[in-house]
Design a protein that fits this description.
The protein is built from 11 helices and 12 strands. The model has no long low-confidence stretch (mean pLDDT 94).
């Protein structure tokens, strides 16, 4: 049987190292924060080539706290790709309820369209000058599918336009940009999700924020723990968004396996991409050879093909996923659902995700390739 992901195999790979610590945790009962959380924060920050790590309750809260820590106070404009999970939008909106969020279309490879990003920022700046307004700008670079989303060029745009940069690296643990920068290391601040199905996944929900700025680190520590500097001393309004100790233990031991698991993902994805020859199926173009394939997306030839292809995969016992069938700008709560984002909408209609994880065997990979190539 082919699995879309194999979380049990991940657990078995770390069980002997993790179980003694979990059993000791159950004895000491230090379930919230504590030394195991600090240990993981330090090693993950170092892995991401950052000075500081702040473990939090999940990836959505990581984005929210990271954005809020930037302290944008004026007329705030947020720029983000439309092709992302809704959590990116909701977290940004929760951090800045009155912000204007600009959804940016993507290139054919799934990365944010830099020309459109620049055009939107320039338009906002021009309007601010005309109306003599003081504004703050935040760009959220979302590293989809295991890529770094044109990270280095986005950084240059942010620098030139005096915009803050937040990396949503929830799907890119260990990925690198074309210039060799590790996901999470370039932005002012960055957020990761450790949802169980991620390349580095917890046994439940968890997340982390990384940064190289001490002031942002201090602010995030306050925000995740009720705005508290010490017990019962609260200096500002904060949240209950702390990382559970048991998740930090599991993540610490999985982190030691991550590079090897990512290499296996890339090897398996390469075999599938090279093997699929059907003219009705198009594997997505790589943004960088250093991507880590959190998801292996393919595009069917048109919208009407996808239901037939899904039925075909199901009949042949190949699990699959769809990311994301309703774009954010088409959701009922989105304020400007007249946005014209044709490539994002095409992805929503045509994309199918194939199984990709470190524990796929060559037999299963070859089976998938043969079945897909027989699709008529």
């Amino acid at each position: 049987m082919i699995k879309f992901n194999d979380l049990n195999a991940q657990w078995l790979a770390i069980k002997d190292q993790a179980m003694p610590e979990i059993e000791e945790l159950l004895k000491t009962s230090q379930f919230i924060l504590g030394p195991q959380v600090e240990r993981f924060e330090k090693v993950f920050a170092s892995y991401s080539e950052c000075k500081y790590g702040i473990g939090v309750s999940n990836g959505t809260d990581a984005i929210k706290i990271a954005a809020k820590a930037l302290g944008l106070k004026h007329n705030t404009h947020i720029f983000m790709p439309a092709n992302t999970f809704v959590a990116t939008y909701l977290a940004a909106k929760e951090a800045y309820p009155n912000a204007k969020i600009h959804m940016i279309d993507i290139y054919e490879d799934g990365s944010m369209n830099l020309d459109l990003l620049q055009m939107n920022i320039d338009q906002v700046n021009s309007n601010a000058i005309i109306h003599n307004e003081s504004i703050d700008k935040l760009v959220i670079a979302v590293h989809m599918f295991g890529n770094c989303d044109n990270l280095d060029k986005i950084y240059n745009i942010c620098t030139d336009t005096q915009s803050k940069l937040l990396e949503d690296a929830s799907q890119a643990h260990g990925a690198m940009s074309l210039d060799g920068n590790v996901a999470g290391s370039v932005g002012d601040i960055s957020a990761f999700s450790f949802y169980p199905g991620k390349n580095l996944g917890a046994a439940g929900d968890a997340g982390i924020i990384v940064t190289n700025h001490k002031n942002l680190y201090d602010k995030c520590q306050l925000l995740r723990n009720y705005g508290s500097t010490q017990k019962y001393i609260h200096v500002e309004e904060g949240y209950n968004h702390r990382l559970d100790t048991i998740q930090a233990i599991i993540l610490y031991h999985k982190l030691h396996k991550l590079d090897g698991w990512n290499e296996q993902r890339k090897s398996h994805a390469g075999k599938i991409i090279q093997g699929v020859k059907s003219n009705r199926i198009k594997p997505m173009q790589e943004v960088s050879q250093r991507q880590v394939y959190h998801i292996l997306p393919i595009l069917v030839s048109n919208k009407s093909t996808r239901p037939n292809f899904i039925t075909y995969l199901t009949k042949n016992n190949i699990p699959h996923g769809i990311h994301y069938p309703i774009p954010i700008h088409k959701m009922p709560f989105y304020s400007n659902n007249n946005d014209n984002l044709p490539i994002t909408e095409s992805y929503a209609d045509r994309m199918v995700s194939l199984p990709i994880h470190p524990f796929l065997s060559d037999i299963k990979i070859n089976y998938m390739i043969n079945i897909i190539n027989q699709f008529k």
